[in-house]
Design a protein that fits this description.
Blueprint: H1 8-13, H2 19-29, H3 35-47, H4 61-96, H5 101-115, H6 118-132, H7 148-182, H8 185-192, H9 197-205, H10 210-226, H11 229-234, H12 240-249, H13 253-281, H14 283-288
Helix pairs in contact: 4-5, 4-7, 4-10, 5-7, 6-7, 7-9, 7-10, 8-9, 10-13, 12-13
Length: about 290
Amino acid sequence: MSVLPGDAAQLRLGMNAEPEAVAALRAEMGLDKPVPERFVRWLGGVATGDFGMSGTYDVPVVELMAERAEVSVPLALLALALSVGVALPMGLLAAIRRGRLPDRLVQTAAQVGLSIPALWLGLLFIYTFAVYLRWAPSGGFPGWQAGLWPGLGALALPAIALAIPQASILTRIVRTAVTEAMDEDYVALARAKGRREAGAVIVHALPNAWAPILTIVGMQFGFLVAGAIVIETVFNLPGLGRLLFQAVAQRDVTLVQGICLVVVATVVVVNALCDAIAAWTNPRQRSAA
């Protein structure tokens, strides 16, 4: 963004602005300094909790991100809960009935869910549930001050649209991880002792298959927090993903840096937590510890 022609000052004043006015605004925004110097100064501010000022909105970046996170984080949590709630039983069913009709149906449904573009899925939901059936609003967010149910109602369709492809990915991961665990000796021993197939899978195979499952869950949460640009744009949601898109379009480097840093930190923290949970739920690792 720093080496491309043009900058936030030029976009803010317009393409026909006087060069003197653009130069003055560049100096005011600090854009006349070399890129390494600007970056080092920004890192110094981040170390003290100051993420800088947005050149587009002229407000602190922290305030902008906190305001938009009130939409993106609940949306991500709701979509993740739907994804896990669908993928876990579907993946277990496919693993238990592998090679049979339920397994083929689950894999086909997962492939279809992966193949549907998010843009088309969002528009289809708006037409079906908002325009035709009038069960949910077509877009926008009333704010949490309007109440819990209006806020959740505005996030319902976007969350489902986000959850479908993520659930499709997670279903295949669950099936693969559980199927590999089912081929281990301890599952065969459980079967030999008379335990039913479903019980052997849930009690013995699933705890040893959590590591890859939780890794994908952690990655999905990071994607859902700020990667849902298309869905937030389709449903006109003021979230972090849409803010990132607008910041890139407006060449607001400071805002882009702040959002990217927060998203990366979120992914690192969530993945670390998922690894810890996976180690704790794995019987072999827990007994070794």
